[in-house]
UniProtKB/TrEMBL annotation:
This is Nucleoside diphosphate kinase. It comes from Rhynchospora breviuscula. Its EC number is 2.7.4.6. The chain holds residues 87 to 223 of 237 of the full protein. Residues 1-137 form the Nucleoside diphosphate kinase-like domain. ATP binds at residues 9, 57, 85, 91, 102, 112. Homohexamer.
């Protein structure tokens, strides 16, 4: 079955949004197959966002991701990669639709509270980066 990597970023954890976000995925019908709270190192954040290393915001983005606890998760279900992105909403919360997680809960692109894998290849790579196979139920 399809799986995706979802992470609540330090701003989402700090703001107390964990339960509300998990609830959206659960109510939709997706299954939680792995979860842990970790503070990633900056080096780890750079690995996670390696595709963006040429972007001007890369350094600040990695500093931010490593600034506090991140709730790392793997969710499973039909279409979960694409539909997970739909639940999350557009990258820039000014453009995310109301009803999406970012649309409802965030204001600026640098503090958009949640990450979701953008395709099958990145889902596979990100799950392998954040979790040991034994941590997946
Ligand atoms: P994520 O990978 O976190 O799920 P995304 O796939 O919607 O987000 P990406 O293009 O992968 O968007 O960008 C990764 C993250 O980099 C964004 O979530 C955002 O926090 C940050 N980011 C993207 N564009 C900008 C920007 N123009 N200025 C500042 N930060 C940005
Ligand atoms: Mg992305």
């Amino acid at each position: 079955l399809e799986r995706t990597f979802i992470a609540i970023k330090p701003d989402g954890v700090q703001r107390g949004l964990i339960a509300g976000i998990i609830s959206r995925f659960e109510r939709k019908g997706y299954k939680l197959v792995a979860i842990k709270l970790i503070v990633p190192s900056k080096e780890f954040a750079q690995k996670h966002y390696h595709d963006l290393k040429e972007r001007p915001f890369f350094n600040g983005l990695c500093d931010f991701l490593s600034s506090g606890p991140v709730l790392a998760m793997v969710w499973e279900g039909e279409g979960v990669i694409k539909y997970g992105r739909k639940l999350i909403g557009a990258t820039d919360p000014q453009k995310s639709e109301p009803g999406t997680i970012r649309g409802d809960l965030a204001v600026v692109v640098g503090r958009n509270i949640i990450h979701g894998s953008d395709g099958p290849e990145t889902a596979k790579d990100e799950i392998a980066l954040w979790f040991q196979p034994s941590e997946l139920v």
